Amino acid sequence: MTRRILGFVIVLIAILVLPYWIYIPVLFLAILVFPFFWEGILFALLINLVHGGGGDILSLLFSPLALMVLIALIMLWLLRKNLRSYA
Amino acid sequence: MKANYLPKNRSKHLFFRPVLALVIVLISGAIIFSVLDRTIISAVAPAWRAENVIIRSWRSGLAFFSSRQALSAENTALKERLTSLELSILSMSKNSIQEDTILEWAGRRQVSNMIVAAVLTHPPQTPYDTVVIDAGSNDSVALGSTVSLPEGPVLGTISEVFPKLARVKLFSASGEETNAILERNSVPITLVGAGGGNFKLMLPRDIAIEVGDRILVANITARLLGIVGDVSIEPTDAFKQVLAKSPANIFALRFVFVTP
Question: Given B108, B148, B181, B252, which is the most exposed site by the fewest CB atoms within 10 A?
């Protein structure tokens, strides 16, 4: 849990102060590292709100980044569900 | 009697539940963020201001301790000054003095009160060619106000206003269309933003254009908007594709002027 909170804070700081070619990979890394990282969707919405076109509900809902994060989360969840570890 | 209760097929429900949860997070997040957009932007702004202050003090601190760093800083400052002067020269039209005189005679001389604003975030921090400045409706910044560099070239317009902040959409934002004039032969054109401070446009092949030609805003001020960077044409094409770039380095913006 501590790791997850730390990851949350790191992604948030990256979004606020670092260039997009750092914070977008960091966001996807967090999605990859933490299981079912639903906060990633909120981060994608935050990126669109703060750095993107504004707070219009439709632009937020259909922002490419948010949809990509949603798809990545679903794919990873499916992958993790079907992967079995016997270790 | 032995009753055999077969377990229901719950796997489908289990599959859809997390997907549904994620979709609900997306929809509810979008609703909440759209309602609280001003609050969120206002909450985030101090972090950007602090970042700017920290970066400047950090640079000056390093320069104090190291002569090499000092030289480097001086070099950077001189380069910035050189770029600024080059931009000023570029912004000056050949006939600008004559135009000013004619405008004055016609009573259309532009006298506007400009607002100086510091840039809080700029590309590459923002991926969509938008800039956030530290002047808002409290400083008479209005929606649609023109934003330009201190040297003259125009950058974009205000797309969103908050009490102490405003968001600027640059003309080079992807898909953004801007009416402009090609200075060489006064041809009206439509510039299409291509992101990263770049533009593209299509021209009939008979129209003369060269690398370095100036593109001006299509209004009475005729300020510099872009410079032609590349012209490509195929022998079979009726049109030529022109790539232009913003005269300003949008990745190093520090101050802008807003014309309300």
Answer: B108
